[in-house]
Amino acid sequence: MNQSPSPKSPKPDIVGELDQLRVEIRREKASLNEALAPLEQLRYRARTAEALLKSSETLASIVLSSDAAIFSKNLEGVISSWNPAAEKLFGYTAKEVIGQSVTLLLPPNRLKEEEFIVARILQGEQISRIETERICKDGRHIPIRATFSPILDVDGKAIGFSTIAQDIAQEKMAAQALLDANKELIVENKEKEQRASELIVANEEKAKRVDELLITKDKLQASLMETIDLTRQLVELRDPFTAGHQKHVGDLAKAIAAQMGFDEVYQKGVMIAGYLHDTGKIIVPIEILCKPGKLSLEEFNLVKNHVQAGYDLLKDVTYPWPIAKAVLGHHERLDGSGYPNGLKGDQISIESRILTVADVIDAMASHRPYRAGLGIEKALAEIERGRETLYDGAVVDACLKLFRENGYKLPTSLT
Ligand SMILES: [Fe+2]
Ligand SMILES: [Fe+2]
Questions:
Q1: What are phi and psi of 349, to 5 degrees?
Q2: Same structural domain for residues 101 and 234?
Q3: How far is CA 324 from the centre of its chain?
Q4: Are residues 282 and 341 in the same domain?
Q5: Which of 94, 183, 322, 396: CA 20 to 30 A from 52?
Q6: pLDDT tens for each residue of 253-302
């Protein structure tokens, strides 16, 4: 290693020696590094092994503390690991099941399912969250939700599979309870629907009955009107000079009542009272009714009797309105000058006051055996003259308005 100084150079070659020394040092260092390399590799492996061990310990800790049952099997179905939650779920200790076939847990009807799972695992697939069932140590069949994952070797080949299982009995019970509750609701709803259908049928029957009653009511009303009309015509047969008089009075009385604001039911009652107001004339001899000249006092008294006679004939007939009473007052006057009872003011019913005005209008306007018709204007002038003394003011006003403003007309031949 040491070089002898050249005889031609008395001074040692310091620079060359230093270079030579550097080369020697590098060689020694390389040699040393070469010798240390296996040691570094060992250190690296030790660190890796330590990290793996730590990771495995962490994983084991997670598996041990998990509340899900976790266990593993090889491809032949032999159980190789079993965590405490699996012990709790299935009732077997790790010591009892490790090394045993997983068929220990399988109901016979699930063997095909297990075969299907193993086939998928061999292809490296994971089967997630399927719902199945297993048998516990005490023989109970429990529903579980399970995920099956392949365990791979360093070459990525499946050598077994792990199972993570959860008891879903409570969940199933809750779902069943919900289902049962729904069924009860469905039953209740069906009962309600049934009751609703029955009510609809009952209501339809009631509606039908009401329709029948309405038809009957319409028929009865039609029959009533026919009877009233027949009575009116029988009276007028004996007194051809006043033919149509009661109808005109009834129609005008109805129009006055409507003008005064009375409702339709009231209007109809007043109209019928008008149609029947001279019914009592049936007791007056025809020769008096048809006498062309002036009546004697005795004859006039006989005519006046038609009011009480009409009342007597009608009072026992049942009408929805006070027809007989209205008829009884149709010749009364506010000042007490009328007949048959000489009633005054409020003693005379409003129905009678309406009939009175309608009767005066038609009687004056139409022909009589003893005189020609006086015309509507004279008739209107008469009730206007007697307003509040003989005739009700409101009734007179309504009647005047009908003829003078609303164009109401009596049948043409009489006006
Ligand atoms: Fe009369
Ligand atoms: Fe009359």
A1: -70, 155
A2: no
A3: 53
A4: yes
A5: 94
A6: 999 999 999 999 999 999 999 999 999 998 999 888 888 888 899 999 99
Q: Predicted confidence band at 2 (pLDDT cuts at 50, 70, 90)?
A: very low
Q: Is residue 333 part of a domain?
A: yes
Number of domains in the chain: 2
Same domain flag for 241 and 106: no
Q: What is the mean pLDDT of the chain?
A: 89
CATH of the domain at 90: 3.30.450.20
141/235 same-domain check: no
- How many A from CA of 265 to the centre of ligand 2? 23
382 CA → ligand 1 middle, Å: 17
Residues 270 and 370 in one domain: yes
Find where tokens 């266990």 sit.
71
Question: Residue 118 belongs to what domain range?
Answer: 65-168
- Measured in angstroms, how far is the CA atom of residue 270 from the centroid of ligand 1? 15
Q: Per-residue pLDDT tens for 183-214?
A: 989 998 999 999 999 999 999 999 888 888 88
